[in-house]
Amino acid sequence: MLTPTHLVTAQSAYLAVCAASGNPPAISESLVALAAAMLPDLDSRQSYIGRLVPPLSTWVGTRFGHRTLTHSLAAQVVVLTIAWWLIPTGYFIALAAGWISHSIADMMTRSGVCWFWPSLARCVLPGNPRYRMEVLGQGELWFLLVMVGFGLVMMPLAQRAEGTTGLIRSAIGDIGNARKDFDADKGRLRFTITIRGRDNISYADISGTYRVIGPWREDGFLIATPTGPRSACRGTACDWYADHADLTRAGHQITTSFTLSAEVATGDALRAALAPLTADEIYLIGDFIAPESKAALPTVLISGDQVTLFYATPKMLDAWDKRALIAVELTVQARHAPGVDPGQLGPIGPAAPTIDPRIMRWLE
């Protein structure tokens, strides 16, 4: 079988294993799969890799013969066992997919492979030679086209990095299962969610794909929409009822957390402390006391004089520009790309009023 056919087969096999295992595909791993797909033909001086190192390929081919040692199960078991302990999982998958797929593809040709070397018995697929491929024949061309199509199907599934179980869960579309997948990887990945459902108040269709901000209660999501944050779950205790939910991993992301505390501060002072942060997304989670505040569900909740922020953005501090905020205890989440410095919190800012606002309202 020709090298281009082996390369395409290796890529398709690599993507298929990534889709099944949940390993996100990477270009560097893909290159390893390509190299592994050429490696077995080191026993033939006429191959691409054989022409690169003619002394070695000549010696291997003369000493062991073509499609023997370098195509064998024994060599694959020994090398892959060592590789399992020495290289990252993704590179191991690429090495195994490229090498093993080469041997299996060669079994589909008339001459087969000595897969159980040192036995010289040839392994073939299928057993009837009429259905095996001729090198450069129509059979190999059709096989190449099938592998191209298979790879194109596997690529988006592999990029979801959900694994077999995750893909089944996505097909079912249960938001509770989607939440479990989110909880397992939150903080290190970005997510989008495709929802089919309706608004719990207006009954309007809200189906679409949205960016996930964070969790909502036990089995729902807080999501970003063009009209602001909304909560989604399979029930009436949230803004949107999600009949079907498909969670998708949208790439790697790092979440760096900071603590923002003050006995007394203002909204302006808190914004000044947040200003040095350069992260793509910044969210505030925590509590402070600010009488006569207004709720902005689902991210600003009010209970008496206590205000609870739940994945609120710094912009929402505009509601308390000059007002005194008492007992501020906030966690600041800065979400950014790997390797990017999100910055650091600055000082709280200018001195804030020292009179408790619960007393101030009686003095005005």
Automatic annotation (TrEMBL):
This is Inner membrane protein. The chain crosses the membrane at residues 73-100, 141-158. InterPro entries: YdjM-like. PANTHER family: INNER MEMBRANE PROTEIN YBCI-RELATED (PTHR35531:SF1). Keywords: Membrane, Transmembrane, Transmembrane helix. Pfam families: YdjM. Coiled coil: none annotated.
